[in-house]
């Protein structure tokens, strides 16, 4: 996809990630992309709301990307909610019914199905939040 501002095609996953970050930003949530968890998995988007709740979003660029990924269940112990983010043309019937779904074209994002709110244990929340803060500060310092 190209637009007036960027004549170079943007990969689908990058567009979806940008749309998800814009969505959460409009809700006053902080986001980090490619956020490494304590289990060494890397969340595509980790979002932190003003109350400290954590949602992890796994970006899927297409059906093959979804079918080849067996690791997404490993994110649940590190978040209060989990969702997939996909492009509008993604066949939604492939996605599990018990997780959230965000659909985005890179600019407009809709929460098609909310994630299940499963509160983290306080000690896990503290660990993830501290890691989120440290990574954010390190990335800011690198700029």
Secondary-structure blueprint:
Layout: H1 12-26, E1 30-36, E2 42-48, E3 54-59, H2 63-67, E4 81-86, E5 100-104, E6 109-113, H3 122-142
Parallel strand pairs: 3-4, 4-5
Antiparallel strand pairs: 1-2, 2-3, 5-6
The order of strands across the largest sheet is 1-2-3-4-5-6
- CATH architectural type: 3-Layer(aba) Sandwich
Radius of gyration from the CA trace?
Answer: 15 Å
Q: Tell me about the biggest sheet?
A: 6 strands, mixed
Strand fraction equals: 25-35%
Order of helices and strands: HEEEHEEEH
Q: What is the total number of structural domains?
A: 1
Description:
- The chain has 143 residues and is of the alpha/beta class.
- The protein has a single domain (12-142), classed as Trna Endonuclease, Chain: A, domain 1, CATH 3.40.1350.
- Helices cover 29% and strands 25% of the residues.
- The chain contains 3 helices and 6 strands; from the N terminus they run αβββαβββα.
- It has helices spanning 12-26, 63-67, 122-142; strands at 30-36, 42-48, 54-59, 81-86, 100-104, 109-113.
- A 6-stranded mixed sheet has the order 1-2-3-4-5-6.
- A hairpin with a 5-residue loop joins β2 and β3 (54-59).
- The protein is globular, with a radius of gyration of 15 Å.
- The two termini are 28 Å apart.
- The model has no long low-confidence stretch (mean pLDDT 93).
């Amino acid at each position: 996809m190209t637009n007036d501002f960027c004549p170079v095609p943007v990969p689908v996953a990058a567009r979806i990630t940008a749309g998800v970050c814009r969505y959460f930003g409009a809700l006053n949530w902080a986001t980090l992309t490619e956020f490494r968890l304590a289990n060494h998995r890397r969340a595509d988007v980790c979002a932190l709301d003003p109350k400290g709740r954590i949602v992890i979003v796994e970006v899927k660029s297409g059906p093959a990307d979804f079918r080849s990924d067996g690791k997404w269940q490993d994110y649940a112990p590190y978040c209060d909610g989990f969702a997939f983010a996909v492009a509008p043309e993604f066949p939604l019937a492939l996605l599990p019914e018990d997780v959230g779904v965000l659909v985005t074209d890179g600019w407009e994002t809709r929460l098609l199905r909310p994630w299940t709110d499963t509160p983290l244990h306080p000690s896990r929340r503290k660990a993830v939040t501290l890691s989120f803060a440290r990574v954010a500060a390190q990335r800011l310092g690198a700029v």
